[in-house]
Amino acid sequence: MTSERISQQAFFGVSALLFAASAAATIAGCASMSSMGDMPMPGGWTMSMTWMRMPGQAWPGAAISFLGMWVAMMAAMMLPSLVPMLSRYRQAVSRTSETRLARLTALVAMGYFFVWTVLGMVVFVLGVALATMETELPALARSVPFAVGVVVLVAGALQFTKWKAHHLACCREAPTCCARLPAGVSAALRHGLQLGLHCSYCCAGPTMILFVTGVMNLRAMAVVTAAITIERLAPAGERIAQAIGAIIVAAGLLLIALAARIG
């Protein structure tokens, strides 16, 4: 067995372990949130305790706790589609004189998840701000079911845009789409950051859906993970993304109709 094959097997083995650990941490975090229950809100919906501080907890502690759950969740959701991209990167780098394959791959992954961590900070601030307004303004809270339908509708419409197609192509074709082949430590980190940006842009619609349907909702996470993975790895990814978009648009219209009926 060649050293290259051993290295590749070790890469997939470590990736599998990371996926299993992040999935277990995500399930545990969701179970912990579910045990606290949700807060009934005007308009017939419930607010997740994700956006609330625990008794005696300061906001910095709440933010750190959320980011820990967010990073674990993103690792579980993104690794199925990230691992093939990292594998292609490793194959491209192995054809050069570079020998620090494991270290460079780790740096690409670090850059990638750094982007998602920053996005998690933004999501937390936005989620807390909206939750505060919804608890203080009953009229705003009553409009949430309708707003959720609109957000889902917009998320579905994004699947049909050239913007989505461009970033999806970059995720499917990496590393060739992002730049010249990254070689060296700093270039590998930049490549990871670029890949993370393309991925976060490509996942804008699914992330919006996850935000409004419940960040720690296991069923929503499973559906979003499947959609992201299929459009990245299956043949004719753009057509699949549009088919997913059609389903999301239909779901958004249904949610709007239900909200209007209840209202």
Automatic annotation (TrEMBL):
One Pfam family in the UniProt entry: PpoB2
Alphabetic keyword roster: Membrane, Transmembrane, Transmembrane helix
Keyword Magnesium: no
Ranges annotated as spanning the membrane: 57-83, 104-133, 139-158, 208-228, 240-260
Name used for this protein in its record: DUF2182 domain-containing protein
The species this protein was found in: Dyella lipolytica
